[in-house]
């Protein structure tokens, strides 16, 4: 089992990142080690430059994200934790895969359409090519499991398409005609509950780091008071909660809050509604705020302890990068060789 996933060090990590991705990294880290596999989690700093950004901010956010991941339970002794910029193989393999990815495939990516909006001509080439770098990120390590939120499912399918076409077009054949694939086709690991947490201000948009309004998300580093006030001000409707999940079908905001409660408490949505159904948000929101503070409070406390020890955070990234460089070497060499590129 090889687990690979990444998170952009842009903005503040939020509840959606935690429930959709980070919590699963921590779970898989133990499974991978138990099975004699590897877990690699990287900060996608090369992805972060695909949007307008402030260099000083990116630098600071990268260290903050390392502190957050460790505070959430990622253990640098068991997980290879690094940033892309210190492992040049990511950028190299992306270029090699650019010859295989098709313009049409990338044009169909919903994240590209969402992030570019109406101004496609004004976007960076990096924002368009982003999913090719993402494919390189996981193919480089022969990933078998890729824990991501539901919003990244399409990009992972693209990574599989790129891997398949590359293997098909370039994988060397042995004497008996059998293919020796260069890349393993990665599987998404998307547990159903909490796969997509929505904005607190608009139940039709996903919670995002890049959303300008801070009130739209619960940050993992928010104080208990901030969490409570964000939940209190979250958009809802005037109806009491239904007693069964089916009653949430047309109520995006209510469905999101109940879904968050279910994911945090480890209960099914129906179980949450058995307890809270028939009651209004005046009752449910304080219960949700308490649960958030109880779950995320300890993470925040550990983050505060870790965040200013820059030397230790740099050391984690340097060690992780050295290991990632070694692990990526064989696949990168195989890709160069399959394409017929001459190297010393
Ligand atoms: P940005 O707005 O900068 O793209 P983001 O909030 O989408 O930030 P990413 O760094 O792109 O965060 O994603 C990190 C991981 O978190 C990915 O696996 C992604 O699928 C997951 N994720 C992001 N937002 C959510 C969400 N609202 N619900 C569940 N998972 C999410
Ligand atoms: Mg994103």
**CATH architecture title of the largest domain:** 3-Layer(aba) Sandwich
The dominant shape is globular
CATH class designation of the largest domain: Alpha Beta
Terminus-to-terminus distance? 33 Å
Account of the protein in words:
Its EC number is 6.1.1.2. Homodimer. Catalyzes the attachment of tryptophan to tRNA(Trp). ATP binds at residues 8-10, 16-17, 149-151, 197, 206-210. With 344 residues, the protein is mainly alpha-helical. The protein folds into two domains: 2-190 and 310-338, HUPs (Rossmann fold); 214-305, Tyrosyl-Transfer RNA Synthetase (Orthogonal Bundle). The chain has 13 helices and five strands. The strands form two sheets. The protein has a three-stranded parallel β-sheet with strand order 1-2-3. A two-stranded parallel ribbon has the order 4-5. The radius of gyration is 21 Å and the shape is globular. The model has no long low-confidence stretch (mean pLDDT 95). Adenosine-5'-triphosphate binds next to helix 1.
What are the main properties of this structure?
344 residues; mainly alpha; Rossmann fold; Tyrosyl-Transfer RNA Synthetase; 2 domains; three-stranded parallel sheet; two-stranded parallel sheet; 53% helix; globular; binds adenosine-5'-triphosphate; binds magnesium ion
Blueprint of the fold:
Layout: E1 2-7, H1 15-34, E2 38-43, H2 45-48, H3 55-71, E3 79-83, H4 89-98, H5 103-107, H6 110-116, H7 125-139, E4 145-147, H8 153-170, E5 187-189, H9 224-233, H10 252-265, H11 269-276, H12 281-306, H13 310-338
Parallel strand pairs: 1-2, 2-3, 4-5
Helix pairs in contact: 3-12, 4-7, 4-13, 7-8, 9-12, 10-11, 10-12
Adenosine-5'-triphosphate (ATP) binds near residues 20, 207 and 208.
Function: Catalyzes the attachment of tryptophan to tRNA(Trp).
Main location: cytoplasm
Keywords: Aminoacyl-tRNA synthetase, ATP-binding, Cytoplasm, Ligase, Nucleotide-binding, Protein biosynthesis
């Amino acid at each position: 089992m090889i687990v690979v996933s990444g998170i952009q060090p842009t903005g503040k990590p939020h509840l959606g990142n935690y429930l959709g991705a980070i919590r699963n990294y921590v779970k898989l880290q133990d499974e991978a080690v138990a099975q004699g596999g590897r877990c690699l989690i990287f900060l996608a700093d090369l992805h972060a430059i695909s949007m307008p950004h402030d260099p000083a901010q990116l630098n600071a956010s990268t260290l903050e994200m390392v502190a957050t991941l460790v505070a959430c339970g990622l253990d640098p002794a068991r997980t290879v934790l690094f940033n892309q910029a210190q492992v040049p193989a990511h950028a190299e393999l992306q270029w090699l895969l650019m010859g295989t990815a098709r313009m049409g495939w990338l044009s169909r990516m919903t994240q590209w359409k969402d992030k570019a909006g109406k101004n496609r001509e004004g976007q960076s080439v990096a924002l368009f090519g982003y999913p090719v770098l993402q494919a390189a990120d996981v193919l480089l390590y022969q990933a078998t499991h890729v824990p991501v939120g539901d919003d990244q499912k399409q990009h992972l399918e693209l990574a599989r398409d790129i891997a398949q076409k590359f293997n098909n077009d370039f994988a060397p054949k042995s004497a008996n005609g059998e293919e020796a694939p260069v890349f393993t086709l990665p599987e998404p690991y998307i547990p159903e509950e909490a796969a997509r947490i929505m904005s607190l201000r608009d139940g039709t948009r996903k919670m995002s780091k890049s959303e300008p309004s801070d009130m739209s998300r619960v940050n993992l580093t928010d104080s208990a008071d901030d969490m409570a006030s964000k939940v209190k001000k979250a958009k809802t409707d005037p109806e009491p909660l239904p007693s069964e999940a089916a009653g949430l079908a047309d109520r995006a905001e209510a469905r999101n809050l109940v879904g968050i409660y279910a994911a945090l408490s480890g209960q099914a949505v129906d179980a949450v509604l058995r307890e809270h159904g028939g009651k209004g948000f005046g009752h449910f929101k304080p219960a949700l705020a308490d649960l958030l503070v109880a779950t995320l409070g300890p993470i925040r406390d550990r983050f505060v302890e870790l965040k200013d020890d820059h030397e230790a955070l740099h050391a984690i990234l340097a060690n992780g990068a050295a290991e990632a460089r070694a692990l990526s070497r064989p696949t990168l060499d195989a890709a160069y060789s399959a394409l017929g590129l001459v190297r010393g």
